[in-house]
């Protein structure tokens, strides 16, 4: 069994640091799978929101191989999507999750955020689907600018009245998509996206947050040490009653010595 190299806490946020991102993904998937099994024993269906990003690769690979999960009783959502990309674009987050998880485990229901169509209407319809029952789990990451989903610092709101909204992506966020290899250049990255808001994500009963790699070090440091504010949206995770942040030593860095 993979054990963390280092364990700490920031506010109510549990933090587990692993030697390698592969170990991180395996441990996070083990914990998420166990929680999912418990939920499936307690209720007829389980509703999960997933993030789509290279930071989730190892986690999703191990989760897809987890045994004894009744995936036909799982309703799967995702947390954000670009506006305006063609339906067959490999850069779509729905495409990523289909390839890395949905086509492998075959959840009973998969609700994809449309990239095409009228954005306001798409937000309203997706919010309606989400609000039909409580969300049980969120599997998420943190952006290089501290964003959760596409709640970048300029548009993040801890008290957002909307369950989902249209946002303009900031420059750091768009550059991250290039850094992650999702687009060849900044000009190729869409400017607008649809995102679940921070209150929607925080309303879930259990959060699993996977944030590996040295490019995320500053975001992790701010998440754990900065005053809670929309300047680093991920600082809100320190207030959730049941959230664990999983990272590797490359992401955590010198914080282990502080």
What does this structure look like?
Residues 21-149 form the Glucosamine/galactosamine-6-phosphate isomerase domain. One of its GO terms (cellular component) is cytoplasm. This is Glucosamine-6-phosphate deaminase. InterPro entries: Glc/Gal-6P_isomerase, Glucosamine6P_isomerase, NagB/RpiA_transferase-like. Pfam families: Glucosamine_iso. 32% of the residues lie in helices and 20% in strands. The chain has a single domain (6-250), classed as Rossmann fold. The protein has an eight-stranded mixed beta sheet with strand order 1-2-11-10-7-3-4-6, with helices on both faces. Strand 10, helix 7 and strand 11 (243-248) form a beta-alpha-beta unit. The mean pLDDT is 94. With 258 residues, the chain is α/β, with parallel strands linked by helices. The protein is built from eight helices and eleven strands. Helix 1 packs across helix 2 (57-64) and helix 2 (57-64) packs parallel to helix 3 (93-105).
Provide the descriptors you would attach to this structure in a database record.
single chain, 258 residues, alpha/beta, Rossmann fold, eight-stranded mixed sheet, three-stranded antiparallel sheet, 8 helices, Glucosamine6P_isomerase, identical protein binding
């Amino acid at each position: 069994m993979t054990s963390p190299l280092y364990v700490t806490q920031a506010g109510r946020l549990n933090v587990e640091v692993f030697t390698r991102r592969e170990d991180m993904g395996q441990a996070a998937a083990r914990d998420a799978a166990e929680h999912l099994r418990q939920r499936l024993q307690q209720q007829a269906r389980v509703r999960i929101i997933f993030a789509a990003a290279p930071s989730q690769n190892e986690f999703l690979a191990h989760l897809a191989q987890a045994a004894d999960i009744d995936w036909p009783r799982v309703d799967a959502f995702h947390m954000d999507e670009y506006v305006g990309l063609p339906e067959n674009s490999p850069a779509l987050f729905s495409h990523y999750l289909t390839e890395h998880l949905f086509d492998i485990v075959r959840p009973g229901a998969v609700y994809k955020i449309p990239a095409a169509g009228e954005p306001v209407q798409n937000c309203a319809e997706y919010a309606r689907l989400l609000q039909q029952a409580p969300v049980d789990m969120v599997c998420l990451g943190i952006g290089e600018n501290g964003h959760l989903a596409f709640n970048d610092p300029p548009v993040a709101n801890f008290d957002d009245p909307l369950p989902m909204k249209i946002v303009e992506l900031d420059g750091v966020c768009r550059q991250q998509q290039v850094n992650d290899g999702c687009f060849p250049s900044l000009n190729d990255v869409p400017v607008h996206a649809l995102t679940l808001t921070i209150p929607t994500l925080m309303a879930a009963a259990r959060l699993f947050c996977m944030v590996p790699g040295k490019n995320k070090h500053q975001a992790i440091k701010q998440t754990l040490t900065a005053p809670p504010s929309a300047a680093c949206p991920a600082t809100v995770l320190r207030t959730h009653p049941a959230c664990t942040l999983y990272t590797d030593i490359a992401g955590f860095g010198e914080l282990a010595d502080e």
